[in-house]
Structures are given as C-alpha cells and as structure tokens.
C-alpha cells in the first residue's frame, strides 16, 4: 500500500496537465498572431487592389479620350473628303457639257429649274445639302432609271436621304404643273407653223399632236394582269399632247396597260383633267386613238 501511495503517477500527471496548458496558451497566441498577420495582409491586398483599379480606370479614361479624338478626326476628314467630291461633281455638272448627258438638260435650264423649285419652299437648302444637289439627284434618277443605292454611292449620301430628297423634289414639281403644262390657245398660231410656208396656211388651225405610250411600272402582284397589255411586263398607258415648240401641253397618266388608246382619249375629253379642243382647231394623232 505504501508503494502505491509513494508512486510518481500523480506528479507526472500534474506535470503533463501543466505542459498541456502551456501548449494551449502558446497555440492561442499563435492563432492570434496568425490572425493579425492575415488581417494586415488582407488590408494590404485591399489597398493594392484599390490602387490597381484606380490605375486601370485612369488608363481607360485616357484611352477613351485618345480614341475619341482620333475617331473625330477621321470622321471629320471623311466628311470633308465627301463634301469635296460632291462640290467637284456639282461644279462639273454646272459648267461642262456633261450636264445634258447626265441630267438631260443644259446648265442654264438646270439652274432655272432649281430657282423655280426653291420658290415653292418644298425644296430647301440645308446645312449640308443644296437645292441644286437635290434636283440633280432627282433628274439623274428619272433620266437613267437608276436605283437609290446607286445614287447614294456616287453622291456619298445615305439611301434614306436620297429617297427623302427625291420625294421633296417630286412634290415641288407637281406644284408647278400649271406652269409647265399649258394647253395652247385656239386663237394663237404657233410660230413654227406661221413662219413655215410648207405648213402655213394648211396647218394654221392645228394646235399640236397627241399620242399614247406605255411606261413600265411596278404594281402589286394581284394587279399585274390588268397592267400587262402589249408588253411582257406591267405598264401604264399614258396619253400626252405637245405643241410645235416640242413642249408638252397635256399628260394623262394612271390607265392600266390593257386599256385601249381610244378609251384613254375618251377619258381625257371628259375626265377631271380635260384635254381642251375647240371646234375651229384640230390636233394630229395616230389612227389607233380614233
């Protein structure tokens, strides 16, 4: 029994517990130290990320400003180049013989037409487009039957701009119908007849000539059969009259290609826009109009 009480086990156990407490205390201190180090490292990384982000933002702002300056310069150079091309083209049309080939009228007639259309206030000069350019594009389209995209390429304009200006010029020309289409007077003999001994006095009462012609048109598929007459494609049968000065005095449009010339003529004599005839006058015409 004395050996049992005199054993060293309790002393060793107490020593072991003391060592464990010291190790636990050291472990706790190590953990706190590690947490402190990690916290400081985290703060340092936050600062580094913030500085890096600010540098990226400043760099991107610089690039955006630099690129916008370059883009503005390139766009301005392109605009100046396009304006020079258009100015050169319009100058050639006004001052050379090419005006009649391209627009089907001489430079003087072209400028007079532009002034008449400008007076209607349907066609106006804008900051970037003159009336002359709008009228030139319109005449080029109707003279050569070209597409809007073709004109937009040569004039460096968008298709929407070309189409909008085309319809503006068209409306202005329609307003000048009474000035362009004047039916001849019954009491006035044309100078082309009066001063030509071959025609005078035999044709002194003749006021002009009339005839019909077919113009190709685009209509909905459902309406194409009644517009397809003599041709393989849809057309309008248009009646026109002109005097001996080679000026049109009457035009009737809208009839289908299947309509006969005599039917169109009857409509011209009794329709809303009447072709004037006088008892003492006569008009030259083709036999198929009778």
UniProtKB/TrEMBL annotation:
Residues 94-174 form the DUF8040 domain. InterPro entries: DUF8040 (IPR058353), HARBI1-like (IPR045249), HARBI1_dom (IPR027806). One of its GO terms (molecular function) is metal ion binding. Pfam families: DDE_Tnp_4, DUF8040. The keyword Translocase does not apply. Belongs to the HARBI1 family. This is Uncharacterized protein. It comes from Arachis hypogaea. The lineage of its organism: Eukaryota, Viridiplantae, Streptophyta, Embryophyta, Tracheophyta.
């Amino acid at each position: 029994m004395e050996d049992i009480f005199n054993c060293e086990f309790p002393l060793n156990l107490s020593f072991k517990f003391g060592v464990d407490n010291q190790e636990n205390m050291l472990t706790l201190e190590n953990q706190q130290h590690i947490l402190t180090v990690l916290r400081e490292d985290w703060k340092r990384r936050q600062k580094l990320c913030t500085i890096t982000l600010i540098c990226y933002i400043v760099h991107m702002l610089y690039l955006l400003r630099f690129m916008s300056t370059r883009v503005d310069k390139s766009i301005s150079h392109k605009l100046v180049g396009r304006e020079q091309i258009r100015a050169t083209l319009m100058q050639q049309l006004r001052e050379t013989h090419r005006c009649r080939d391209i627009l089907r009228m001489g430079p003087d007639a072209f400028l007079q037409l532009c002034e008449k259309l400008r007076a209607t206030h349907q066609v106006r000069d804008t900051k970037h487009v003159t009336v002359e350019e709008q009228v030139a594009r319109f005449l080029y389209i109707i003279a050569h039957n070209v597409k809007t995209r073709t004109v937009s390429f040569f004039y460096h304009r968008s298709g929407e701009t070309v189409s909008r200006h085309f319809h503006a010029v068209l409306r202005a020309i329609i307003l000048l119908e009474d000035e362009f289409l004047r039916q001849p007077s019954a009491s006035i003999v044309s100078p082309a007849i009066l001063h030509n001994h071959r025609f005078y006095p035999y044709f002194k009462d003749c006021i002009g000539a009339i005839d019909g012609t077919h113009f190709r048109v685009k209509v909905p598929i459902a309406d194409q059969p009644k517009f397809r007459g003599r041709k393989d494609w849809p057309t309008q049968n248009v009646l026109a009259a002109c005097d001996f000065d080679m000026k049109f005095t009457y035009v009737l449009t809208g009839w289908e290609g299947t309509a006969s010339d005599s039917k169109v003529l009857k409509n011209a004599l009794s329709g809303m826009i009447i072709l004037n005839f006088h008892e003492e006058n006569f008009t030259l015409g083709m036999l198929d109009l009778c």
